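User: Let's play a game. I give you a shape written as tokens, and you guess the letters that built it. Ready? Here's round one.
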């Protein structure tokens, strides 16, 4: 099967799902430009998921819907107290009261309730981050006729995904923005950049491999395809697009090329790559006090909201890959067309 035939699109290009930075609008624009648009569903309740899927479905193009499949952790009072005391000076500085403990988790794992909504629309693709859902939930997705994708950060994770029902694997190199999709090899010291991870995953797997992480232009696309990718998944390069919902502070940080990115656990408890800001400089970027994913969000959320209201990104997760040279404040079709040149032969 040719690689574009697998995606059902003109281009073997997937716009990465980016929770918090986009809704169906970006995915629809990408679909109209000939690539596969993705809807991130990790932070959507069932009613919002249904509304967004209705919009995507009406576009008449294939699309991907993305979920997280983490196991919600038990709360740890000692760690929660340490996290709160680390954040207390910021609460005092911004004149805020500390919220009560046990704030609602901002990110929910894939569930039967979400599958009920998906069944109405039967998306062409469903992708997962942090592994795969439990077998009976995965079987429900497969019965809908959706192809299943998931991210791997090591060869071992890629083999596990292949053995447990993925139809294709996204090899997520260390350059990638947002959360690491790791679920077996959670130490980033074990993980490689896209150029090293991709050919090893391609060599190890029988199923198709999609490259992700640091791909921002036609040269990056060409390099990934030359290393055996069947398609590429690009996130960061779409963040400044007109159709994205990227916040003003996030856009400003992305447009300034000077500040590097780092992996941090301060915003959710899970390791994710973002542009370094004040709280990352002062508390980490990795802190042993931060509660496990996704519980850290509750402590930092009020600081983020208050700071953003004054135009400050000091407490905002400024998710970005290491390579933001492909970001364009332009319609998404322009980013798709720039990347598409990397697929042209000759
Ligand atoms: C702002 C942002 C949010 C992201 N959110 C998600 C998400 O909700 N689900 C997911 O599977 N991956 C998410 N990712 C990771 C992407 O799937 C992908 O691995 C990454 O964007 C590829 O690297 P690049 O950003 O260098 O293109 C996110 C990435 C970014 C930049």
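Assistant: Ready! My guess for every position:
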């Amino acid at each position: 099967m040719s690689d574009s035939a697998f995606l059902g699109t003109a281009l073997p290009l997937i716009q990465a799902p980016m929770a918090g930075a986009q809704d169906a609008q970006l995915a629809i624009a990408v679909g109209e430009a000939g690539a596969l648009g993705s809807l991130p569903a990790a932070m959507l309740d069932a009613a919002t998921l249904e509304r967004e899927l209705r919009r995507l479905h009406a576009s008449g193009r294939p699309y991907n819907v993305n979920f997280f499949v983490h196991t919600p952790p038990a709360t740890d009072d000692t760690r929660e107290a340490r996290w709160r005391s680390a954040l207390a000076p910021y609460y005092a500085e911004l004149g805020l009261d500390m919220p009560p403990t046990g704030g609602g988790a901002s990110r929910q794992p894939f569930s039967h309730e979400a599958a009920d909504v998906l069944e109405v629309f039967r998306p062409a693709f469903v992708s997962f981050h942090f592994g795969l859902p439990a077998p009976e939930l995965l079987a429900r997705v497969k019965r809908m006729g959706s192809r299943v994708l998931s991210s791997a950060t090591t060869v071992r994770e890629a083999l596990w995904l292949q053995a447990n029902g993925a139809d294709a694997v996204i090899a997520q190199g260390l350059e990638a923005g947002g959360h690491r999709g790791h679920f077996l090899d959670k130490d980033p010291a074990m993980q490689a950049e896209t150029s090293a991870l991709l050919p090893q995953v391609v060599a190890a797997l029988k199923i198709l491999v999609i490259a992700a992480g640091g791909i921002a232009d036609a040269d990056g696309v060409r390099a990934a395809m030359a290393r055996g990718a069947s398609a590429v998944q690009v996130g960061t390069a779409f963040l400044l697009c007109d159709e994205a919902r990227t916040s003003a502070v996030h856009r400003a940080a992305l447009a300034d090329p000077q500040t590097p990115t780092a992996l941090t656990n301060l915003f959710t408890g899970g390791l994710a790559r973002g542009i370094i800001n004040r709280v990352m400089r002062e508390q980490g970027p990795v802190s042993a006090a931060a509660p496990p994913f996704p519980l850290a969000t509750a402590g930092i959320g009020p600081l983020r909201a208050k700071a953003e209201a004054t135009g400050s990104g000091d407490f905002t997760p400024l998710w970005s890959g290491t390579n933001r040279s492909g970001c364009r404040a332009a319609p998404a079709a322009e980013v798709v067309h720039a990347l598409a040149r990397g697929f042209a032969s000759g």
